[in-house]
Amino acid sequence: xxxxxxxxxxxxxxxxxxxxxxxxxxxxxxxxxxxxxxxxxxxxxxxxxxxxxxxxxxxxxxxxxxxxxxxxxxxxxxxxxxxxxxxxxxxxxxxxxxxxxxxxxxxxxxxxxxxxxxxxxxxxxxx
Length: 127
Ligand SMILES: [Zn+2]
Prior knowledge:
By secondary structure, this protein is α+β, with helices and mostly antiparallel strands. The chain has one domain (2-119). The protein is 28% helix and 31% strand. It has helices spanning 11-22, 28-31, 36-45, 82-90, and strands spanning 2-9, 47-48, 62-68, 78-80, 95-102, 109-119. Strands 1, 2, 3, 4, 5 and 6 form a six-stranded antiparallel beta sheet that branches. A hairpin with a 6-residue loop joins strand 5 (95-102) and strand 6 (109-119). The mean pLDDT is 92. Zinc ion (ZN) binds next to loops. Residues 53, 55-56, 58, 103, 105-106, 108 line the site of zinc ion.
């Protein structure tokens, strides 16, 4: 099992961006700017989300997990499935996980949450 701690949600920032877009304060080009790598990661490693894209309303919205940390070595800064994340943790690694929402259709992308993944029992149990 994976313990996620230090969880930080970015849903408020996401809501602000969407509100600014709806009121015309920012252009779609500025928020729908996912790079090729991010879109590819969303397609191959992403988990489908049960809500439509907030920008184009296409139903291909996905969530991707990006992992960061010195203990990961060269794997730091790559997209990983939840199964892989569980395996890293089982191997005793501790690292940061970024949960990013990506729409392959219009290239909308936003950080949803960030947390530290660590083996169960090594943290204080805070969720
Ligand atoms: Zn979209």
